[in-house]
Amino acid sequence: MIQYFVKSNYESSFKNNNFPKLVHICKAKKVDNKFPRIMHMHKDMVEIVFIKEGSGIHTIGNNKYKTKKGDILIYNKDVLHDERSNLQFSTYVCGITNVKIEGLEENHLIPDNIKPIISSGKYFNVIENIFKTMYSEIVLNDKGAEETCNYLLLTIISIVLRLIDLSGNKLEQEKYQLGKRIKKYIDDNFLGNLNIKTLSENLGISPYYLIHTFKNETGYSPMHYIINRKIGEAQNLLINTNYSVAEIGTIVGYDNPNYFNMLFTKTIGMSPGKYRKYFVSKNFKQAK
Description:
Elements: E1 21-28, E2 46-53, E3 55-60, E4 63-68, E5 71-75, E6 81-82, E7 90-97, E8 117-119, H1 124-140, H2 145-167, H3 178-189, H4 196-203, H5 207-218, H6 222-240, H7 245-251, H8 257-268, H9 272-279, H10 284-287
Antiparallel strand pairs: 1-7, 2-5, 2-7, 3-4, 3-6, 5-8
């Protein structure tokens, strides 16, 4: 038997040993991708997505990335992401708050100049088994499940930080472009009453040039993008709050409940009420 000793003075990845906390964990099967989470961001947490199976394309921030089995996707706080894909995925996802890493903004796991996708490589089985255990613990909800999951979370984050250091996946510095300026304005104001006229006036760009430039940047017309941002925010609210469907419609800018229901159903594939029942666990109110 060979005995290995652990250093007692190892350096923690977290400021003042202030540990992150698990907000949620979910397992998405291929069938769940029929009802995708579209354009949204998180104001108070970072998410880690682990792809167990599948390949396709994910949009994170201003870029689209080819993704595949074994990839780890990192959504820092305030980073827009779209989880639609041309193919189906099986994933584990966890939301984390109180992430305080030296040199980074709170609830950031990676610097802005690092690609938000890394390969799990030789750690694939380890990471999959940890996620599987965490998910089982929360589902069974036995005594100490939350504590166990938070300890396991530290292991995942530690491995992810190691992989980030090994990856060297730096993003190329991009020049600030008009398309990005339009996108930032919409992202900051999409809950308001935006239309092509107001965008054109506020940004000082002709309507034709605005539409053409924005579509080249994002692949969407400005109004299609705004609708997706509103519906994506509605998904956030349906999953994470107890607001009624009508209240959520008003929050995202649709005072007519029937129109909101129609638009949500057309975009996602099911009504807001059914979406909430489908994706929110029965112990949601207890967890809140």
